[in-house]
Amino acid sequence: MTVAYEMTHLDMLEAEAVHIIREVAATIEKPAMLFSGGKDSVVMLHLAVKAFWPAPVPFPVMHVDTDQNFDEVIEFRDHTVERYGLRLVVAKVQDDIDAGRVTEEYPGAARNRLQTVTLLRGISENKFGAVFGGARRDEEKARAKERVFSFRDEFGQWDPKNQRPELWSLYNGRHRKGENIRVFPLSNWTELDIWSYIRDEKIELPALYFARKRPVVERDGMLLEVNRFIQPADGEVSFEAVTRFRTVGDATCTGCVESSATDADAIVAEVAAARITERGATRADDRISEAGMEDRKKEGYF
User: Fold this and answer.
1) Signed CA dihedral, 113, 116, 119, 122: sign only
2) What is the number of other CB atoms lying within 10 angstroms of the CB of residue 129?
3) What per-residue confidence (pLDDT) applies to 94?
4) Which pLDDT does position 298 carry in this prediction?
5) What is the Cα–Cα distance from 114 to 302, expressed in whole angstroms?
6) What is the pLDDT of residue 300?
7) What is the model's pLDDT at position 282?
8) What is the C-alpha separation between 131 and 125, in angstroms, rounded?
9) Which end of the chain is more exposed for a tag (fewer CB within 10 A), N or C?
10) Angle at Cα 186 formed by Cα 131 and Cα 61, nearest 5°?
11) CA distance 153 to 75
């Protein structure tokens, strides 16, 4: 008797992502995977481990480091690299500041918008032919325009009007020397898919993603954790609240949300009821117009 095997929604997303990762490894010379320790990059790395198991992941991971990261996330990044025996490439924004390639707006200012130069330098210096990123189309409108294989020219620029067709999930990774392909295996995932997969696969994450009592200040409509980067300004008063982070970026501009969700099951239920994306709700650097983000991506941003 023939038994039909029915794939779940998450099974299909996993199979698609594994196919994309293997396709890049088979067809593009010297790929790398962006890995920050955030939930999307953790899921993407988990998929890469599955794609090549029992062999090791055959490419390095790269972190574009602004030196404004949450300490817990950097500790998690290093723990994960050691756990899987990965080669970690760190491209530091501070190096570009010191070399005069970028300029800080003022000491202590958020460095997220300075990352583009550092990312392009890291790709060029290491001669990476493709770079995996954890961006998803549901995050914001400019990212929804991008294909799974996103062609970038020799200057790292993205042209949203000149993208390659991807009919029947056929991907074209051809590029000339100096050009680059950005690859997004999680393009078709949503925040709810990510958390459902984390729950089902029992994937380890930094503790920031789970609710606990934290000292915070309210600023620009967001709750910011008080830490070595964020201190109460004149007129602000810190207080304790039970919060968690929906997304993890720089500590200077990433807010948390009030929540009692201490495990993945509770977060899945919470995300299912949410009506605003995690980046739109808690990332000050993303509170810009669609055109603004699109311009940044044209310059070479993630």
Assistant:
1) negative
2) 19
3) 94
4) 65
5) 12
6) 65
7) 57
8) 13
9) N
10) 35
11) 34
pTM above 0.70, yes or no: yes
Question: Exposed, middle or buried: residue 32 (CB in 10 Å: 0-12, 13-18, 19+)?
Answer: buried
Q: What is the distance between the alpha carbons of residues 267 and 209, in angstroms, rounded to a whole number?
A: 9
At 4 the pLDDT is 62
Residues of the chain with pLDDT under 70: 1-4, 278-293, 295-300
